[in-house]
Amino acid sequence: MHIKDKLAACEKSGKPCFSFEYYVPKTAQGVQNLYDRMERMGSFGPQFIDITWNAGGRLSNLTTEMVNVAQTVYGLETCMHLTCTGMEKEKVDHALKEAYNGGCTNILALRGDPPRENEKWSAVPGGFRYAKDLVKHIRDKYGDYFDIGVAGYPEGCDDEVDPDVLLDHLKEKVDAGGTFIITQMFYDVDIFLDWVKKVRAKGITVPIIPGIMPIHTYAAFIRRATWTKIKIPEKWMEALEPVKNDDVAVRDIGRDLVVELCQKILDSGINQLHFYTMNLATATRMVLEGLDMMPSLDSPEPPALPFKSSLGLG
Ligand code: FAD
User: Fold this and answer.
1) Among residues 3, 21, 215, 288, which is most buried (max CB within 10 A)?
2) GO molecular function terms here (predicted)?
3) Is residue 252 classed as helix, strand or coil in its secondary structure?
4) What tens digit of pLDDT does each residue of 9-46 get?
5) Can you give the pLDDT at residue 121?
6) How close is the Cα of 107 to the center of ligand 1, in Å?
7) Residue 306: burial class (beta carbons within 10 Å; 0-12, 13-18, 19+)
């Protein structure tokens, strides 16, 4: 089922909904652990899950395998991330074919992070330059078969900080065929809500799904905020810095802060939350519990379906 249809059904129900992002692990054991967690977290009731793509296509076989397993073995509606950084068109087409063959009908079309060793990203000859080119390519090749999401940046992205220019580029991606937007993580809810108004003022009407990063540890919280160059509200630092060496306290206080952030988003009328799980269950579950969004204890858990990755990484 297309994510846009899931979002429309969620909107109609009047109840808040959520989804989970997982990244591709580097070892065979990590893959098996993630399958177990995916299945367990599937019982929380996500609308969909999505699986990241390593820019340039490293581990691409694993992304397509995991998408296939999540969709067909675990019955989770799955969205495959696909980047076009440093990738030949043939590799992009191969990935799309694998997704198609695996029953996946949702793609998050991205340019990809620039390679770390280079200061600037440059396109492969004959390849794609921007995410909008990938969106257009998917639409040209597959029509409406795939639902296509694109990335949004309430606080700017790597190589463009001018919010107005970024909004123009976001509009181009949507005009090329994007039907929903998933945002970069943020901790300042006012920046996000202000950005949503600007997106709407640009005439972009597709659903906006806020990306939420629960707090696992203090070190990871600071590292990710620094990496994505997002603002941490003063109140958050005042609450978390004094307990930074106490992981349990960080998680508890972090839960309260993230619950408050999510509640403000829900109160604004946006009723879908997208959690960057970092392949971990606890912090995300704590936030969902705090929002009263976990299914009741008497709902039956799906039976365990063991699956072994065929790729033998490790
Ligand atoms: P684009 O929208 O193409 O934008 C890239 C840059 O080009 C921007 O500065 C933009 O302003 C500029 N630009 C766009 N169009 C034009 C134009 N017409 N003229 C001039 N400049 C233009 N990375 C991964 O490697 N793998 C993942 O799985 C992954 N998942 C992500 C999921 C989400 C929700 C988000 C928010 C990001 C994700 N990323 C991922 C990171 C993303 O690939 C990087 O942030 C990347 O630098 C930008 O990707 P984009 O798709 O937004 O690119």
Assistant:
1) 3
2) FAD binding; methylenetetrahydrofolate reductase [NAD(P)H] activity
3) helix
4) 999 999 999 999 999 999 989 999 999 999 999 999 99
5) 58
6) 14
7) exposed
Q: CA 191: distance to chain centroid? A: 19
Report the distance separating Cα 79 and Cα 62, nearest Å.
Answer: 14
Do 199 and 152 touch, CB atoms closer than 8 A?
Answer: yes
Angle at 31 between CA 118 and CA 182, to 5 degrees: 60
Task: Output 117 or 266, whichever has higher pLDDT.
Answer: 266
Which pLDDT score, from 0 to 100, does residue 115 have? 66
Q: What's the token pair of residue 290? A: 């705090």
The single residue listed with the structure tokens 């972009």 is 204
- pTM for the structure as a whole: 0.94
Containing 272, the helix (H) or strand (E) segment is: strand 272-276
* Residue in the block written with tokens 């929903």: 180
From 59, 87, 158, 169, the mutation candidate for ligand 1 (largest count of ligand atoms within 8 A of CB) is 169
ipTM: 0.99
Contacts of 267 (CB under 8 A, 6+ apart): none
The residues annotated with a catalytic role in the active site are: 21
